[in-house]
Specification:
2 helices, 59 residues, alpha+beta, single chain
């Protein structure tokens, strides 16, 4: 017989940990053309308050 497994059982197995995913968006000026470009990166941080202290160098 096949084992019955629900979606709720599958989601309980995943350990999410103590991290929060934060999307950081910052502007960079192109050296050749002088135009501005926006770059983004998803970063894992322990707390949302830590994300406010980050700079573009840390990303």
């Amino acid at each position: 017989m096949a084992k019955k497994q629900t979606f709720a059982d599958k989601s309980k197995k995943k350990d999410k940990g103590d991290f929060v995913n934060v999307k950081c968006v910052f502007a960079v000026q192109d050296e050749n053309k002088g135009t501005w470009k926006f770059k983004d990166r998803v970063v894992k941080v322990a707390d949302v308050k830590d994300a406010e202290k980050m700079t573009a160098d840390q990303v």
